[in-house]
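Re: that backbone. Tokens:
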């Protein structure tokens, strides 16, 4: 539950830095700041104006640090409460001492996400915007940051509010039918109500179905590199990462386990998995590695199929081609610096349909072309199925998807009830359930358990 006390925490990441921020929020924030901060030149603290001074131990008068302080009065503050911040030197010991002084003066250490939670509870932001704060902190790519910033700016909340308003309007029609069925009032027919619900279902489904795309953008597209031994998989991984992440030797079967790392490609994050070579093996350890290769390939969003163009096609190559069937990906015809034994036409002849890039993993100047092709493949994977203004809005949180799923189910039940000429009270029950599910996204309908689940993964100080 929301306790009207005063909390304190570092608002900057732990470790050594040039500057750190210690934040206070609550009814005693200014009082506690006055106890531990002495402005220089006897200048008082004015709202939203930085003042130079000393952080001191009120018990001994000992100076702890020379710092800047600022106050922000409620309700126009981050949390909607009185907020005070001390910008001190960024040493861990200094930060710990200042926090300890604030606690000694009457503050309590903030729980993870408690500042943002108070902002929500005080009406400064809604629940979807609060979640966007955590997504901004955790963003792994430009595209993930763009989704989070869009959500923080209220775009998702506005769209959800629009959909909820349409649901409430349908409920109003049903209320009129319930309350004034004997009056000479022109009421929408059940067919009209059903058509209105049908349009709403389509709009909610667009937002719901954006989750798969949003998750790829937020967490990164998982790509598995597959190919027979010595096709150049590990060399490709090292080239993309710009580091010797995987051991490269001429000995077949060097890679025994799945090696994972990530790289930025344009606005996207790509999570790469280098795997053991695809082939039949009597070696128990290598066979386990190959089984993990197959599992990684099944779970991947994107396949990067490696082929050695200097060697004729073998059964292992045909297995790799079969793995790519019906999957998004890119085929790499590697070792083009050597005399060619196979060409693109040979792969096409055996059923390869994904794009093919002739390549040499030892020629660094070709890395740009590889990155461009992979970026193009990712862009196609995360693009909306039917581009439109509403299709560009993307959700990336399971909670939002689940709420939209509940809303969709309730709306489908309401449509069926309306077209089956069920009493308006029956239709209204499902319509109310849809409105409640949509409202839960922005926090119009929420419980303490839901709030606990949302904010427990935040970092302390946010």
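Recovered sequence:
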């Amino acid at each position: 539950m929301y306790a009207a006390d005063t909390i304190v925490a570092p608002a900057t990441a732990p470790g050594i830095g040039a500057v750190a921020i210690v934040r206070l929020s609550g009814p005693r924030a200014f009082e506690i700041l006055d106890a531990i901060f002495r402005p220089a030149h006897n200048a008082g603290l004015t709202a939203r104006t930085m003042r130079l001074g000393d952080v001191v131990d009120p018990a001994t008068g000992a100076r702890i640090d020379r710092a800047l302080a600022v106050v922000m009065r409620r309700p126009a503050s981050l949390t909607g409460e009185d907020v005070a911040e001390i910008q001190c030197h960024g040493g861990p010991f200094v930060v710990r001492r200042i926090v300890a002084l604030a606690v000694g003066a009457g503050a309590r250490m903030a729980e993870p996400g408690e500042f943002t939670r108070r902002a929500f509870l005080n009406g400064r932001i809604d629940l979807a915007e609060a979640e966007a704060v955590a997504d901004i902190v955790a963003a792994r790519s430009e595209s993930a940051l763009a989704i989070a910033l869009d959500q923080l700016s209220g775009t998702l909340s506005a769209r959800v509010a629009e959909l909820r308003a349409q649901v409430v309007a349908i409920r109003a029609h049903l209320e009129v039918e319930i309350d004034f069925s004997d009056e000479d009032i022109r009421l929408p027919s059940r067919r009209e109500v059903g058509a209105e619900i049908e349009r709403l279902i389509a709009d909610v489904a667009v937002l719901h179905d954006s989750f798969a795309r949003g998750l790829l953008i937020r967490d990164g597209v998982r790509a598995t590199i597959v190919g027979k031994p010595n096709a150049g998989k590990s060399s490709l991984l090292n080239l993309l990462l710009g580091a010797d992440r995987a051991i490269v030797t001429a000995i077949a079967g060097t890679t025994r386990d799945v090696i994972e790392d990530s790289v930025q490609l344009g606005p996207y994050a790509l999570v790469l998995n280098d795997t053991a070579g695809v082939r039949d093996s009597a070696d128990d350890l290598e066979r386990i590695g190959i089984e993990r290769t197959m599992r990684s390939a099944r779970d991947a969003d994107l396949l990067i199929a490696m082929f050695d163009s200097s060697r004729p096609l073998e059964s292992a190559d045909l297995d790799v081609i079969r793995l790519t069937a019906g999957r998004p990906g890119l085929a790499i015809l590697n070792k083009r610096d050597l005399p060619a034994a196979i060409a693109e036409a040979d792969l096409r002849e055996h059923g390869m349909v994904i794009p093919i890039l002739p390549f040499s993993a030892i020629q660094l100047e070709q890395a740009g072309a590889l990155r461009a092709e992979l970026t193009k493949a990712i862009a196609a994977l995360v693009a909306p199925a039917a581009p439109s203004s509403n299709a560009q809005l993307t959700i990336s949180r399971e909670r939002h998807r689940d709420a939209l799923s509940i809303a969709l189910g309730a709306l489908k039940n309401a449509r069926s009830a309306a077209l089956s000429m069920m009493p308006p009270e029956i239709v209204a029950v499902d319509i109310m359930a849809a409105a409640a599910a949509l409202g839960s996204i922005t926090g119009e309908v929420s419980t303490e358990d839901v709030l606990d689940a949302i904010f427990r993964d935040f970092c302390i100080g946010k």
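The chain has 16 helices and 13 strands. Residues 155-179 form the longest helix (25 residues).
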